[in-house]
Amino acid sequence: MKTNACVSSLAEVSLESAKWKLKFISAYFRRKDANAALLSNFEVFQLLTDLKQQRKESGKNKQSSGQQNLNTIMYETLKYISKTPCRYQSPETVRDFLVAMKGHKLTKAEKLQLLNHRPVTAVEIQLMVEESEERLTEEQIESLLQTVTSILPGDPEEQQRDSAMATEDKGDQA
User: Within 13 A of 21's CA, how many CA atoms are on the CB side?
Assistant: First the structure.
């Protein structure tokens, strides 16, 4: 009997946790435009960074268990998302990228994938653009790569390392 009671209480806790997470998502990720359902990693990063800053400034010490759960979700999300290219983006960069993408026939979801992941190879483009072999020529893929890499900033350390390797390769060929 105790096993059934434990399983039942665990199921209730899991259900309650799932309900809480759903409330969190709907409360914190509402947009001004009700039809806009997609958020870029940059938007999520900015939102969570702003919320974290507001909490520091408010200086509230006592927290409910729900608040602690929210803090954990925010921490884990920020930890993950700060390792992605969005950490180097700005609102102007995102706007410039979306304007440049108007010339390419891509879906909103595909543009979002490109924005979030900043592909640097044709293979990455093919993974993000559905049926890319049928929809895009090699020239269009190269054009996409050029647009992505010229507008969206990458990791400065990685770019410096790549340029040093390219310089080294040129030296080896000479």
Answer: 9
Q: Cβ atoms within 10 A of the Cβ of 71, count?
A: 14
> pLDDT digit string (tens) for 1-57?
554 554 444 444 455 555 555 555 555 555 545 555 788 999 999 999 988 888 888
Nearest-angstrom CA–CA distance, 121 and 119: 6
Q: Give the per-residue pLDDT at 68.
A: 82
The pair of three-digit structure tokens given for residue 148, joined into one six-digit string? 């992505």
Cβ of 53: how many Cβ atoms within 10 Å?
10
The per-type count for the chain, helices as H runs and strands as E runs, is 9, 0
pTM (2 d.p.):
0.66
Calpha distance 62→55 (Å, rounded): 12
